[in-house]
Amino acid sequence: MRILLICNAGTSTSLLMKKLEKWGSSTHNEIVVKATSFATYFDEDLSQFDCFLLGPQIGFRLEEIKEGIKLPGAVIPAADYALSNCEAIYKLAKNLVK
Q1: Hey, which residues are catalytic here?
Q2: For 2-97, which CATH superfamily applies?
Q3: What's the pLDDT tens digit per position in 18-54?
Q4: Largest Cα–Cα distance in the chain?
């Protein structure tokens, strides 16, 4: 699964990206994650992603981003984001891609 993580500045999603990739390796779930900021997400090659996930701090922009990039997307629940609940975040992404 290829996930684009978007947050306000890209900093907190960079940390989450590393944790998700490590979790994926340890559980034999193939995950490729890219973290970016709201200001630059449209510069990404979107064809390389299956879905996008937003940090909860920019969840209010979900519909705006969906219109612009035509990928399935969702907001990561605040508790899962704060705790880096990789299993729950992976399940969220997997459900989007079905």
Answers
A1: 7
A2: Response regulator (3.40.50.2300)
A3: 889 999 999 998 899 999 988 888 888 899 999 999 9
A4: 35
